[in-house]
């Protein structure tokens, strides 16, 4: 068992390195594009007096930090397991997603506060400049979103993509605000649309935050039912009972399972182990499956309902 665990960790680490190399490159390209335009949009927003543009520029600077964190986390996640971190540093991506979701909430609060202030003290806005800069910003955001969408979809990349899609919404809001201001002179549309975009981003940010916290709290993945896994293991030939069953997410796309299987004789264990791994892979998509046999004479400390009869 010990030797198998070592081999499995090595194989998983090698696979992880392979899948994240291109992903990290996508994040770096997205970072350079986003950062290069954020400064332009900030200057244009200040010159034109548009909160929508300033909010979008602030959002793009936040995106730059988010993409930088995502790229750094992807690099850390590629590091192989060590004596100090036996699973490697795969959780770095989850931590980056958590930080980015919190960063989004802070940014939303700042936008809403400034928008409320603008309602009380309207300012002159150069609508034509807002439209021109926002159109270019929308194109940049869509290109970055396309780059990220083509890369590997992890919790970390989804957090970065959420920032970019929020930016795209901000650019659309700025375009609409500029058109309304040019056509009617109604400047209140600028903070109004900024608040609308903030609310739309809030929904996705809270969802991402909840998912990241669920992973960090060792929650069972949403698409896996603990009871079904327990009954599938207990239904294997030679298995009398399953206890101490745990399922958790190591990182995006990597699910782990551990359990004790009560069996009649240790001589049956090699066949049971192979059958259990095949069942978990085929029916539940779980590939990391360390299991421990408990011969019939050994009484488990904790009984569970998972048995062939239940």
Please give the share of residues in helix: 55-70%
| N- and C-termini, Cα separation | 29 Å
Q: Examine the secondary-structure arrangement and name the CATH architecture of the largest domain.
A: Up-down Bundle
Order of helices and strands: HHHHHHHEEHE
Rg result: 25 Å
Q: Pairing-aware structural class of the strands and helices?
A: mainly alpha
Strand order of the largest sheet: 1-2-3
Query: Please, what is the CATH homologous superfamily of the largest domain?
Result: Cation efflux protein transmembrane domain
Which residue ranges are poorly predicted, with pLDDT under 50 across at least 5 consecutive positions? 1-22
- What would CATH call the class of the largest domain? Mainly Alpha
Tell the overall outline: elongated
The CATH topology of the largest domain: Alpha-lytic protease prodomain-like
- The DSSP helix count reads 8
- Overall pLDDT, averaged? 79
* Percent in strands: 5-15%
Number of domains: 2
Reported for the largest beta sheet, the result is:
3 strands, mixed
Number of strands: 3
Key structural traits:
disordered N terminus; Alpha-lytic protease prodomain-like; mainly alpha; 2 domains; 9% strand; 3-stranded mixed β-sheet; 68% helix; 310 residues; Alpha-Beta Plaits
């Amino acid at each position: 068992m010990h030797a198998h665990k070592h081999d499995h960790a090595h194989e998983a680490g090698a696979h992880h390195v392979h899948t994240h190399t291109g992903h990290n490159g996508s994040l770096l390209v997205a970072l350079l594009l986003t950062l290069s335009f954020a400064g332009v949009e900030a200057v244009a927003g200040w010159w034109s007096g548009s909160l929508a543009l300033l909010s979008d520029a602030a959002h793009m600077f936040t995106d730059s930090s988010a993409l930088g964190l995502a790229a750094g986390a992807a690099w850390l996640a590629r590091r192989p397991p060590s004596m100090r971190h036996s699973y490697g540093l795969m959780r770095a991506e989850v931590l980056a997603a958590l930080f980015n979701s919190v960063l989004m909430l802070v940014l939303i609060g700042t936008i809403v506060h400034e928008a409320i202030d603008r309602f009380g003290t309207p300012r002159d806005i150069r609508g034509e400049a807002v439209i021109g800069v926002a159109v270019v910003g929308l194109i940049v955001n869509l290109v970055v979103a396309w780059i990220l969408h083509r890369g590997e979809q992890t919790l970390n990349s989804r957090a970065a993509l959420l920032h970019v899609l929020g930016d795209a919404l901000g650019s659309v809001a700025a375009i609409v605000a500029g058109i309304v201001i040019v056509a009617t002179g109604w400047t209140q549309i600028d903070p109004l649309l900024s608040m609308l975009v903030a609310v739309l981003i809030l929904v996705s940010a809270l969802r991402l935050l909840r998912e990241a916290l669920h992973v960090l709290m060792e929650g069972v993945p949403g698409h896996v039912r603990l009871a079904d896994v327990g009954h599938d293991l207990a239904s294997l030939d030679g298995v009398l009972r399953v206890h101490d069953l745990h399922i958790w997410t190591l990182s995006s796309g990597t699910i782990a399972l551990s359990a004790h299987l009560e069996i009649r004789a240790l001589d049956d264990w090699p066949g049971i182990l192979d059958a259990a791994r095949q069942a978990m892979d085929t029916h539940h998509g779980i590939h990391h499956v360390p299991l421990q046999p408990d011969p019939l004479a050994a009484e488990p400390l904790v009984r569970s309902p998972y048995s062939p009869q239940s």
